C-alpha cells in the first residue's frame, strides 16, 4: 500500500449481511448489500431509518463486525465475519449529534488526533490547526468550548478534527441534521470548499435529498430492512458545486428520481414499523 | 461584587427571606422565653443563645471569643478533611476503574453493594474495638460514610458518558490510556462532584455521631458534653456552628467543581 | 441550552444531584444499575460473597495487624444463630422498624405538602426556603440533646430524630420535582380548560411523583443512620442498642451480627420504598 | 380546496387571528430586550399559515401571545374580532417538546380536555373513538406516552387538541425531533388532515422544504426585534403530494424564501447572536482552484 499519504480510499462492499440477535430476537438488518465507491468519490447513502446505513458505517469504521460478506479498502480486507480491523485514523467518522469533547477547547479538539498518535509535535500541530481554522474563516475561536458555539460551527470544527489526520475515508452520519435552512446552505458551501482543497473519499449518510444531489457524485438508495441497494443514481455535475445548479433541469430530474425511490421505501418501512410497535 | 449586593437588596426575595427568619426567631423566643409553656420552657431561647455565643466570658467556657471554641472546631474540621480526602481519593479511584474495566467491576461491585447498605454508624462499635485508638475509629466511620457515596456516583458518572465520545477517541487513534485520561475522567466529573457533595454532607453527619458516641474532643462531643452539663445555649450554638461549617464545605466543593469544569460553566452561561 | 432556568437551587440539596444535565438521567441510570446489579447478584454476586468470606477468614487467620481482633466468619454465624433463635433479637427488630416507620411516615406527611407548597407559590418559598436552608446543614444527630430535652418520652424523641433525618431530604426533592415540571405541560393543561385544582391534582402532583419517590428512597437510607446513632446514644432496645450493648459486653461476633442485621433492615426498607415507587408510577417502568 | 368536512370531527366554525401593532419587551434585572416590535399579522380563516425566521426572532413568543400564555407589552391579539385574554380551548397548541402527560395513558391524555370540562362519559368515549381512529392510535389507547414512537406521540397530541374542536390549531416546530422518514410521513398526514377538515392552522418551522410543502401563505420574520419581513403566496395545487418537491415552482419559492432568510441571518450575524455565528464560514470561505477536477 503506497504509504506516500496520497489519499486513495477506494471502498468495495461485497454482499455484506448483518444479523442482530438482541435477546434472541432475530433481526436481519442487511442482506447481500454490494456496491463500490471509487477513490476520492463523494458517495451519498440515503434510505429509510433502520435500513442499515449506520450498520455499514460501523462496519467500515471498525466499530462493529458483519455477519457475512467482505469490505475492502484499497484492496485490503478491513471487515469480514472473521476479521475486523480496529478503528484508526484512515477511516474517520463524524457523528450525527456531534462528538467534540465538551471538556476540551476547539484547538485541543482539533489537534487531539495528531498529538495522541504522536505524528506531530505540539507546536507543529498547533500551527496546522490554526492554518486550517483560518482557511475556513473560523479564526479566533481556538480557546472557546464547544458548548459556547452554535451547532453549525461545532460541526465544522469536528470535520476539521477529522481532516487534520489526513484520513483516506471520511464518514459522516447525517451531520447537518437539525440545522436551520440558512445554516445548512452554509455547511454545504463549507464542505464543498474543504472537499475541493484536499479531496478524499466521502461516505455521507443523509435524508435531505437536496443535500444528496448537491454534494454527491453518486447517490446509493437503500431498501427498507433487510437492507440492500435499491438503486444507484450518478450525479455528473462539475465541481466545485454552485448553488445556482439547484434550479437546473438535470438537478430537478435527478431529485424527482431519487425522491420517487426513497418515498416508496419509506412507506414500506412505515407500515412495518407500525406493525412492530402494535 | 457591589452591584450584585445592590440588586440583591432591591429584589423582594431578600426581604421575604429576612421576614421569614425574623418571624422564626420571634416565635422561638415567644415559645421558650416569654410564655410559660410546659415542655418549651426547658429549651434555650434565642436571646440567651446569642448572648452566650458572643460573650467574652461565657458560662460554658465556649463562645466566639474563647480558644476552646476554635479548638473544638479544629478537631472536627481536621477529622472531616482527613476522612473526606481519603474517601475522595479511594472512592473516585475505585469508581473510575470499576466503570472502566469490566472484569474489575464484576468482582468488586457485589462486595461494595453488600457493604453499602450498612449504615456507617453501625461500624462504630467494631471500629472502636478493632482500630487502634478512638481517633482512628471516628475518622474511619466518617470515611466509610463518604466513601460509598463517592464510589457509586463516580460509577454512575462513567456510565453517563455518551458512547460516541469513546468511539470518536478511538477513531482519532487513542490508546486505552488516552481514552481513560481524555474521556473517562473528564466525562465523569459532573457526577463525581455530585458524589462529593453528598459525601461531604454524610461525612459531617457521621463525624458528629462518632464524636458523641466515642467521647472524644470536637463539636459533636462538645454538644453532648454541653447537654450533660446543662449548658443548653452551648448546644444550640454548636448546632448552628455545625450548620455553618456544613454550608461552607459544600460551597467549597461547588467552587472547586466550577473551576475544574470550566466547560460546564460555559454550558450554563451560554 | 436545555437548562431548566427555574428554581434558585444553587446550594446542593442533600440527595439530589446538582442542577446540570446529568441530573435528568440520574433516576434512569440508577434503575439501569440496579437492574444490572440484580442479575449480577444471582450469577456472580454469590461468587464474590464467597471471595469476601474467604478474604475475611484469611485476614484473621494470618493475624493482619489490627484486624486480628476480628472474629472468624464461623463465630459470627454461630452467634447469629443463637441471636436469631432468641425472642429479644426479633423484639429489637420490631422496635427499630416501628421507630423508623413512625418518624419516616411523619416526615413524608409534613414534608411533601411543604415541598409542594414551596414549589407552587413563589411567595411562600420566599419566606420559608431561606430559613429551611439554614436548618438543613445541621446534622440530624446534633439534634439529639434538644430532642431528649423537649420530648417527654424517649420513644418520642427517637421518632423526632428519625423525622429530622428524612424531613429535609423529602422537602428538597419535592421542591426540585415540582420546579422541574416543564412549563409546556402546565400551559397545555390550562389551554385544555384545566382549573387550578385540576392542575394541582392531575399535573403537579403526578409530575413530581418521581422526585417524591427519590426523596423517600434516599431519606430511608439516612433515617437508618440516624436511628442507629439515636439508639446507641439514648435508646432502650432496638438493633442499634443491641449492637452497642454487644460492644459494652465485648461480644464482638454479636457486634457483627448486629451490623449485618442493621444492614439487612436498611436494605429491606429501601427495597420496600422502591417497590412502592414502582407500583405508584406504572408509566415510569422500563418499557 | 376540499369542502369543510361536516363529520362529527369538527363543527366547522374556524377562527381568524389578527395581531395589531403587537410589541413584546422582556425586562430582566436591568436589561430590556425587545423581542417583537409592532407586529401586524393575519392568520386567515381556513388557511394553513407558516411562519419562518432565524432562531431568536421571537416566533415562539408570537404564538405564545396568540395562545394566551403571555401578554403583549403593547398592541393586541384578536380572535374573530374579540381580544385574547388568556389560554383557552379555542386556541390549542402542539409544542416542540412533547407535552403529553407522561403519567396518563393515550386515552386519558386525549380526553383530558373533555373530562376537565365535565362532559358526559359516553359523549367523551364516542368522540375519543372517532379522533383516535382518525390518527390511527385506537389500538394504542391504553399505552403510556413513553411506550410510543415519536411520530405516534405527535399524532396523539394532535388528537388531544382536535377533540376539543379549537378555532385555530398552532404547531410549534412539532416535527423537529423526529427522524427524517417519520417527519416526511407526519407532514403528509398533517397536510392531509388539514385539507380534509380545513381548520385554521398556524405552523412554525425552520425547515424550508417543510414550510413550502405545507403552506398556503408563508411569512418570513426579521431577526431581533421580530417583525413580519415578507409574505410569500404558495400557489402549489392542493392536495399536496411529495413529487411537488421536485417541481420548478417549488424551487423558485424555495430560492426566494432562502434569499430573504439569508438577509436576516446576516443581520443576526452582525449582532453577534450565537445562532447566527453559523454564517461565519459562508461569507468568508474562499474556494481556491478545485483540485478535485484534476
State the main characteristics.
heterotetramer, A: 278 residues, Rossmann fold, 4-stranded antiparallel β-sheet, 8 helices, globular, disordered N terminus, C: 287 residues, mainly alpha, MetI-like fold, 10 helices
Roughly how many Å is the radius of gyration of chain A?
A: 19 Å
Number of strands of chain C: 0
How would a crystallographer describe the biggest sheet of chain A?
6 strands, mixed
CATH topology of one domain in chain A: Rossmann fold
Number of helices of chain C: 10
Strand content of chain A: 15-25%
Q: What's the CATH first level of one domain in chain A?
A: Alpha Beta
Can you name the CATH architecture of the largest domain in chain C?
Answer: Orthogonal Bundle
Estimated helix fraction of chain C: over 70%
Characterise the protein shown here.
The complex is a heterotetramer of chains A (278), B (270), C (287) and D (294). With 278 residues, chain A is of the alpha/beta class. Chain A has a domain of 155 residues: Rossmann fold (3-Layer(aba) Sandwich). Chain A is built from 8 helices and 10 strands. In chain A, the strands form 2 sheets. A 6-stranded mixed beta sheet of chain A has the order 6-7-8-3-9-10, with helices on both faces. In chain A, strands 2-1-4-5 form a 4-stranded antiparallel beta sheet, with helices on one face. In chain A, 51% of the residues are buried. Chain B has 270 residues and is mostly helical. Chain B is built from 12 helices and no strands. The mean pLDDT of chain B is 87. The N terminus of chain C is likely disordered. Chain D contains 9 helices and 10 strands. Chain D has a 6-stranded mixed beta sheet, sandwiched between helices. A 4-stranded antiparallel beta sheet of chain D has the order 2-1-4-5. In chain D, α7 crosses α8. The termini of chain D are far apart. The interface between B and C is large, with 86 and 85 residues.
Give the topology.
The complex is a heterotetramer of chains A (278), B (270), C (287) and D (294).
Chain A: E1 11-20, E2 27-37, E3 42-46, H1 53-61, E4 68-73, E5 76-80, E6 91-94, H2 106-110, H3 112-117, H4 122-135, H5 151-163, E7 169-173, H6 181-197, E8 201-205, H7 209-215, E9 218-222, E10 229-234, H8 249-277
Parallel strand pairs in A: 3-8, 3-9, 6-7, 7-8
Antiparallel strand pairs in A: 1-2, 1-4, 4-5, 9-10
Helix pairs in contact in A: 7-8
Chain B: H1 2-10, H2 12-34, H3 46-54, H4 67-100, H5 102-115, H6 124-130, H7 134-160, H8 163-171, H9 176-214, H10 219-228, H11 232-260, H12 262-269
Helix pairs in contact in B: 3-11, 4-5, 4-7, 4-9, 6-7, 7-9, 8-9, 9-10, 9-11, 10-11, 11-12
Chain C: H1 22-61, H2 73-85, H3 87-120, H4 122-135, H5 144-150, H6 154-179, H7 183-191, H8 196-234, H9 239-248, H10 252-280
Amino acid at each position: 500500500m503506497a504509504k506516500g499519504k496520497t489519499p486513495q480510499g477506494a471502498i468495495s462492499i461485497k454482499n455484506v449481511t448483518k444479523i442482530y440477535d438482541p435477546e434472541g430476537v432475530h433481526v436481519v438488518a442487511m442482506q447481500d448489500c454490494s456496491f463500490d465507491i471509487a477513490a476520492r468519490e463523494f458517495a451519498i447513502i440515503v434510505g429509510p431509518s433502520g435500513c442499515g446505513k449506520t450498520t455499514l458505517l460501523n462496519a467500515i469504521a471498525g466499530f462493529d463486525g458483519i455477519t457475512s460478506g467482505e469490505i475492502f479498502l484499497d484492496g485490503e480486507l478491513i471487515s469480514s465475519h472473521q476479521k475486523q480491523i480496529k478503528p484508526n485514523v484512515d477511516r474517520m467518522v463524524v457523528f450525527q449529534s456531534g462528538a467534540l469533547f465538551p471538556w476540551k477547547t476547539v484547538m485541543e479538539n482539533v489537534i487531539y488526533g495528531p498529538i495522541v498518535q504522536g505524528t506531530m509535535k505540539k507546536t507543529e500541530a498547533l500551527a496546522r490547526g490554526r492554518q486550517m481554522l483560518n482557511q475556513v474563516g473560523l479564526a479566533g475561536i481556538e480557546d472557546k468550548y464547544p458548548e459556547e458555539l452554535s451547532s453549525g460551527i461545532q460541526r465544522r470544527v469536528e470535520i476539521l478534527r477529522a481532516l487534520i489526520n489526513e484520513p483516506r475515508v471520511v464518514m459522516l452520519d447525517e451531520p447537518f441534521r437539525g440545522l436551520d435552512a440558512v445554516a445548512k446552505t452554509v455547511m454545504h458551501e463549507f464542505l464543498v470548499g474543504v472537499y475541493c482543497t484536499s479531496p478524499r473519499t466521502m461516505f455521507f449518510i443523509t435524508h435531505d435529498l437536496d443535500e444528496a444531489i448537491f454534494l454527491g457524485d453518486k447517490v446509493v438508495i437503500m431498501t427498507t430492512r433487510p437492507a440492500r441497494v435499491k438503486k444507484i443514481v450518478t450525479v455528473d455535475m462539475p465541481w466545485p458545486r454552485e448553488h445556482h445548479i439547484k434550479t437546473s433541469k438535470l438537478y430537478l430530474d435527478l431529485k424527482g428520481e431519487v425522491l420517487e425511490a426513497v418515498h416508496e421505501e419509506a412507506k414500506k418501512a412505515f407500515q412495518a414499523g407500525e406493525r412492530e410497535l402494535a | 461584587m457591589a452591584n450584585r449586593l445592590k440588586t440583591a437588596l432591591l429584589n423582594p426575595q431578600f426581604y421575604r427571606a429576612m421576614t421569614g427568619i425574623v418571624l422564626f426567631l420571634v416565635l422561638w423566643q415567644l415559645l421558650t422565653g416569654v410564655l410559660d409553656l410546659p415542655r418549651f420552657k426547658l429549651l434555650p431561647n434565642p436571646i440567651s443563645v446569642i448572648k452566650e455565643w458572643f460573650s467574652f466570658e461565657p458560662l460554658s467556657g465556649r463562645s466566639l471569643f474563647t480558644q476552646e471554641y476554635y479548638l473544638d472546631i479544629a478537631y472536627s474540621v481536621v477529622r472531616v478533611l482527613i476522612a473526606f480526602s481519603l474517601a475522595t481519593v479511594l472512592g473516585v479511584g475505585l469508581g473510575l476503574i470499576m466503570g472502566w474495566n469490566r472484569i474489575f467491576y464484576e468482582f468488586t461491585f457485589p462486595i461494595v453493594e453488600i457493604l453499602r447498605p450498612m449504615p456507617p454508624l453501625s461500624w462504630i462499635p467494631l471500629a472502636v474495638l478493632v482500630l487502634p485508638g478512638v481517633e482512628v475509629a471516628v475518622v474511619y466511620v466518617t470515611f466509610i460514610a463518604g466513601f460509598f457515596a463517592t464510589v457509586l456516583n463516580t460509577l454512575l458518572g462513567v456510565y453517563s458518558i455518551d458512547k460516541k465520545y469513546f468511539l470518536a477517541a478511538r477513531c482519532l487513534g487513542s490508546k486505552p490510556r488516552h481514552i481513560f485520561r481524555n474521556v473517562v475522567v473528564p466525562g465523569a466529573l459532573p457526577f463525581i462532584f455530585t458524589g462529593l457533595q453528598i459525601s461531604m454532607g454524610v461525612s459531617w453527619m457521621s463525624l458528629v455521631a462518632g464524636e458523641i458516641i466515642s467521647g472524644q474532643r470536637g463539636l459533636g462531643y462538645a454538644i453532648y458534653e454541653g447537654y450533660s452539663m446543662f449548658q443548653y445555649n452551648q448546644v444550640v450554638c454548636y448546632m448552628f456552628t455545625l450548620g455553618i461549617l456544613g454550608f461552607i464545605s459544600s460551597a467549597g466543593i461547588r467552587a472547586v467543581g466550577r473551576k475544574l469544569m470550566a466547560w460546564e460553566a460555559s454550558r450554563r452561561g451560554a | 441550552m436545555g437548562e431548566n432556568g427555574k428554581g434558585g437551587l444553587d446550594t446542593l440539596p442533600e440527595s439530589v444531584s446538582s442542577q446540570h444535565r446529568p441530573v435528568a438521567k440520574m433516576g434512569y441510570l440508577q434503575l439501569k444499575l440496579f437492574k444490572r446489579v440484580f442479575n449480577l447478584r444471582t450469577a456472580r454476586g454469590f461468587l464474590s460473597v464467597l471471595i469476601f468470606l474467604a478474604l475475611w477468614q484469611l485476614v484473621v487467620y494470618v493475624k493482619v495487624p489490627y484486624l486480628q481482633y476480628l472474629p472468624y466468619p464461623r463465630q459470627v454465624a454461630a452467634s447469629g444463630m443463637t441471636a436469631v433463635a432468641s425472642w429479644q433479637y426479633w423484639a429489637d427488630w420490631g422496635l427499630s422498624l416501628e421507630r423508623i416507620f413512625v418518624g419516616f411516615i411523619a416526615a413524608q406527611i409534613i414534608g411533601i405538602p411543604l415541598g409542594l407548597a414551596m414549589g407552587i407559590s413563589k411567595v411562600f418559598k420566599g419566606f420559608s426556603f431561606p430559613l429551611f436552608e439554614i436548618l438543613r446543614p445541621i446534622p440530624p444527630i446534633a439534634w439529639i440533646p434538644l430532642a431528649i430535652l423537649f420530648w417527654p418520652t424517649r420513644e418520642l424523641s427517637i421518632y423526632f430524630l428519625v423525622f429530622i433525618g428524612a424531613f429535609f431530604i423529602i422537602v428538597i426533592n419535592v421542591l426540585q420535582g415540582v420546579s422541574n415540571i416543564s412549563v409546556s405541560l402546565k400551559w397545555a393543561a390550562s389551554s385544555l380548560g384545566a382549573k387550578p385544582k385540576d392542575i394541582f391534582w392531575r399535573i403537579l402532583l403526578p409530575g413530581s411523583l418521581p422526585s417524591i419517590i427519590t426523596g423517600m428512597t434516599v431519606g430511608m437510607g439516612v433515617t437508618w443512620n440516624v436511628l442507629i446513632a439515636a439508639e446507641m446514644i439514648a435508646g432502650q432496645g432496638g438493633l442499634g442498642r443491641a449492637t452497642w450493648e454487644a460492644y459494652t459486653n465485648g461480644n464482638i461476633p454479636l457486634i457483627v451480627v448486629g451490623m449485618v442485621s442493621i444492614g439487612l433492615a436498611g436494605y429491606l426498607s429501601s427495597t420496600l420504598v422502591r417497590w412502592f415507587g414502582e407500583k405508584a408510577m406504572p408509566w415510569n417502568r422500563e418499557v | 380546496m376540499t369542502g369543510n368536512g361536516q363529520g362529527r370531527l369538527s363543527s366547522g366554525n374556524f377562527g381568524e387571528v389578527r395581531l395589531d401593532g403587537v410589541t413584546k419587551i422582556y425586562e430582566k434585572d436591568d436589561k430590556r430586550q425587545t423581542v417583537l416590535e409592532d407586529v401586524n399579522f393575519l392568520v386567515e380563516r381556513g388557511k394553513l399559515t407558516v411562519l419562518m425566521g432565524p432562531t431568536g426572532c421571537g416566533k415562539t413568543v408570537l404564538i405564545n401571545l396568540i395562545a394566551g400564555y403571555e401578554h403583549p407589552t403593547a398592541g393586541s391579539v384578536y380572535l374573530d374580532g374579540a381580544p385574547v385574554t388568556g389560554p383557552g380551548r379555542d386556541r390549542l397548541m402542539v409544542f416542540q417538546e412533547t407535552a403529553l402527560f407522561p403519567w396518563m395513558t393515550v386515552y386519558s391524555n386525549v380526553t383530558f380536555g373533555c373530562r376537565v370540562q365535565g362532559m358526559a362519559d359516553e359523549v367523551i368515549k364516542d368522540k375519543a373513538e372517532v379522533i383516535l381512529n382518525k390518527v390511527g392510535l385506537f389500538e394504542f389507547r391504553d399505552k403510556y406516552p413513553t411506550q410510543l414512537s415519536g411520530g405516534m406521540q405527535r399524532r396523539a397530541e394532535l388528537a388531544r387538541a382536535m377533540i376539543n374542536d379549537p378555532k385555530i390549531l398552532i404547531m410549534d416546530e412539532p416535527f423537529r425531533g423526529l427522524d427524517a422518514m417519520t417527519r416526511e410521513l407526519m407532514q403528509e398526514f398533517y397536510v392531509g388532515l388539514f385539507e380534509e377538515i380545513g381548520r385554521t392552522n398556524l405552523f412554525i418551522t425552520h425547515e424550508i422544504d417543510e414550510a413550502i410543502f405545507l403552506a398556503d401563505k408563508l411569512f418570513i420574520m426579521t431577526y431581533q426585534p421580530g417583525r413580519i419581513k415578507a409574505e410569500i403566496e404558495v400557489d402549489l395545487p392542493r392536495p399536496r403530494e411529495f413529487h411537488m418537491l421536485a417541481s420548478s415552482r417549488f424551487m423558485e419559492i424555495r430560492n426566494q424564501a432562502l434569499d430573504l432568510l439569508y438577509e436576516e441571518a446576516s443581520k443576526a450575524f452582525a449582532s453577534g447572536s450565537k445562532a447566527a455565528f453559523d454564517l461565519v464560514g459562508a461569507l468568508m470561505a474562499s474556494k481556491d482552484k478545485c483540485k478535485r477536477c484534476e
